[in-house]
Amino acid sequence: MRSEIALLQHHWRSFGPHADKDKKPALRKALDFLDQKWWKEIVQWHSPSSIPPRRQYHTLSHLAEMFGHFNRYLTKLKDPRAVALSIFFHDIIYDPESKTNEEDSAEVFIKFGEEAKLEERLVAKVKAYILATKSHEHGPQVQSDPDLALFLDFDMAVLGRPLAGYMAYAAQIRQEFIHFPVDGYCEGRAKVLRGFLAMGNVFASAEFRAAREATARANLEAEIAELEAGRVPLPLPGQPDTISVTPSKKGQTDKKFQVYKHPTLKERINWRAVRSQLAIMAISGAFVFVGYSLIVGKRKKAGK
Q: Where are its TM segments located (predicted)?
């Protein structure tokens, strides 16, 4: 996690408010303040919450993974600052039950842009990039903008992980939607994944199609098969149920991955914590009883 934070801080210092310090020397103190203020905002919004809906995948780790790809393709980017800011702000608002996450995230970025006095051109471009993550469609805007295509692929790159890594991601997504019943989640998630397959190409750029397209399609088909069978991956240690998945591409061997059962109420309760709490209550009760007995005894003696 420390390495991820260091990576993110480096890019924030390179492409956030500090990027304008040399251009706007009179605003150095203000830019320093904005740099710290908005860095704290980014960290806070992307931190896993202690109350639902919890971020499990859409965290700082997701941003760090995107910046890993950003670094790899940096020489191909014409406007790296626009892409970097899009990465930082594209998921700053994330509520699994909301249908306006992208619009809300864009509004937060616009507020940042106003405070940092960014050029209107840059603000408009980043806003458009953030809104493009709503559908990830490869329309004319994407086809005519290689930077946008790569940015969208940085966001979708997780689909092309090796199968074990992909299923870890799928489990995190399920955790973010844990408030949905299994059958409803399976139906909705499968519909989303089929939409990715129906786009023709999962990835928008030639670079990612060459490197990850085949793996991504196999991963999507594997998860869809599990969802259609009513199984969802949940990261609950101690409850693994290993199953075999046959990828759709011919010539590939069967692969194993972990799928976790939906927890029952009994499994969700932390019995160790319950027992500890009961023990504390029992000890506290004993002290109260002893104290009460001593007080009563003293009063009886005084009455005599």
A: 278-297
Which domains does the chain possess? 1-229 (1.10.1300.10)
Do residues 20 and 116 lie in contact, with contact meaning Cβ atoms separated by under 8 Å? yes
Residue 247, preceding bond cis, omega within 30 degrees? no
How far CA 266 is from CA of 73, 99, 172, 243, 270, in Å, comes to 48, 33, 22, 24, 9
Amino acid at 248: S
Rounded Cα–Cα distance for residues 213 and 295 (Å): 77
Q: How confident is the model at residue 19 (pLDDT cuts 50, 70, 90)?
A: confident
Backbone angles phi, psi at 160, to 5 degrees: -100, 15
pLDDT at position 193, please? 97
d(CA 299, CA 304): 9
What's the mean pLDDT in 192-208? 96
What gap in Å lies between CA 43 and CA 260, rounded to an integer?
A: 30
Residue 243 pairs with which residues in a beta bridge?
A: 257
> Dihedral angle at the C-alpha atoms of 194, 195, 199, 203, nearest 10 degrees?
-90
Whether the per-residue pLDDT at 142 is higher than 60: the answer is yes
Closest by Cα among 110, 96, 103, 212 to 154: 212
Phi-psi region of 302 (alpha: psi -120 to 50; beta: other; left: phi over 0): alpha
